[in-house]
Amino acid sequence: MTLIADNLRVVLDRIHHACQASGRSPDSVRLLAVSKTFGPEAVRQAHAAGQIAFGENYIQEAVDKIAALRALPLEWHCIGPIQSNKTRLVAEHFDWVHSVDRLKIAQRLSEQRPPHLPPLQLCLQVNTDGGPTKSGVRPEELLALARAVAALPRLELRGLMTIPDPVEGFAAQVALHQRATDLFGSLQSALGLPSFDTLSMGMTADLEAAIAAGSTMVRVGTAIFGKR
Ligand SMILES: *Cc1c(COP(=O)(O)O)cnc(C)c1O
Fold first, then answer.
1. What CATH class does 3-225 carry?
2. What is the full DSSP assignment across 144-181?
3. Ligand 1 within 6 A of CB of 100
4. Which of 50, 220, 78, 221 lies closest to 158 in space, CA to CA?
5. What atom of ligand 1 comes closest to residue 36's alpha carbon?
6. DSSP-derived secondary structure letter, 215
7. Residue 147, Cα to own-chain centre: how many angstroms?
8. For residue range 79-124, what is the model confidence (pLDDT) as tens digits?
């Protein structure tokens, strides 16, 4: 077994225990392996250990990696900031995008999604705790943006993504994540879309708290691939 395979098993165990601790089914939480800054060989090792879904922040780096690993049946998620001039690369190379916080970006992704590919799976990034400078949609603007995005043809609106500021202590982490869960629930009711089923939250340091609060997808880098 490689170190990456060992690490992956530890992370899957953490997810499993966190699900048990909050009475959730272990298959209600997906693991996204965040491979940013690590090369194709690291991704290959994680795939050999059974991992399918990978998250990337830096778009050009990701596109090169995706090309190098074309032969493997992987699922690629864009989780980093997206400038307008990078939307075409995202639309052409990724399966999912978690980090959309403006209608203009979603419109470009929809227009640029190639017809031979399935709809791009999209989460809106919400800012539940930060000041005005932090990226992410403000909660009061979320419903209008979600409705507009859901109407775009080449996208499928799947849910929300959050990156809460780090806080100390399990209870404080759960409380912070719970705000996103509450927003997610109210959007689910308001939109009534069956595909709106994904709450992307929790990373290496806080995945247990995120799962306790209702995360359906944790994005884990350091605990799988090591320090960046
Ligand atoms: C880097 C990154 C992660 C993974 O963080 P770790 O602490 O290494 O697990 C998750 N989500 C986003 C948006 C990131 O940029």
1. alpha beta
2. HHHHHHHT-TTEEEEEEE--PPP-SSHHHHHHHHHHHH
3. no
4. 78
5. 1
6. -
7. 20
8. 999 999 999 999 999 999 999 999 999 999 999 999 999 999 999 9
